[in-house]
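Hi all, posting the design record for the shared folder.

TITLE: backbone redesign
STEP: 1 of 1
STRUCTURE INPUT:
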């Protein structure tokens, strides 16, 4: 199992990165967001990877962070979501946005990804809802699903955790927070989310 690769980037496109480690060049398929986050060719970088071995193919997938890698593994655990769809989703959504969309049942967020239709998007939201909802409520992102070490809790995750501690369900809290600008301070996100929940009849 190749967990990560650290070395010089030999080549980089929007969907592929070739990284040299100990004299060997590894080609990894990556989401667009990873390609954009990594430095230019000639610079050192670390790529977190998932090695996929099937009957007819061996493929390496690379990501800019452990959280992104964990999100990919979680997405591809859903029936009907292959590596191509997983990469497409992570090309348009951050792991945090994936978690918020799944836990709030916002399946339409996934249909923006190439190759993901309404039925598959609904299945993703349904199968991941409880897993990522628990992770967000605990402030541990995808770690609750057993896929990665806890990443630093984002402002949105902290806000969800605070709302859950006030008695709201993880789904209610995630849905309310998803409607708020995630660049705001945690306290502001909580206040705005609470106002939204109050209007909803809580």
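Okay, here is what came back for every position:
SEQUENCE:
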């Amino acid at each position: 199992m190749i967990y990560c690769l650290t070395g010089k980037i030999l080549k980089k496109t929007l969907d592929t990165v070739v990284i040299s480690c100990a004299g060997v060049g590894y080609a990894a398929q990556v989401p667009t967001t990873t390609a954009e986050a990594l430095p230019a060719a000639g610079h050192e970088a670390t790529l977190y990877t998932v090695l996929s071995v099937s009957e007819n193919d061996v493929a390496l997938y690379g990501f800019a962070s452990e959280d992104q890698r964990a999100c990919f593994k979680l997405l591809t655990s859903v029936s009907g979501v292959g590596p191509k769809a997983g990469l497409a989703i992570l090309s348009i959504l951050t792991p945090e946005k994936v978690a918020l969309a799944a836990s709030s049942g916002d399946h339409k967020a996934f249909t923006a990804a190439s190759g993901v239709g309404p039925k598959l998007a609904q299945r993703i939201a349904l199968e991941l809802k409880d897993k990522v909802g628990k992770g967000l409520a605990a402030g541990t992102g995808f770690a609750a699903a057993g896929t990665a070490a806890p990443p630093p809790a984002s402002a949105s995750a902290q806000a969800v955790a605070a709302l859950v501690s006030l008695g709201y369900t993880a789904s209610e809290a995630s849905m309310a927070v998803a409607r708020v600008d995630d660049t705001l301070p945690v306290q502001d996100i909580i206040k705005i989310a609470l106002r939204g929940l109050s209007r909803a009849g809580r």
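COMMENT: Residues 146-152 have pLDDT under 50 and may be disordered.
Let me know if anyone wants the other runs.
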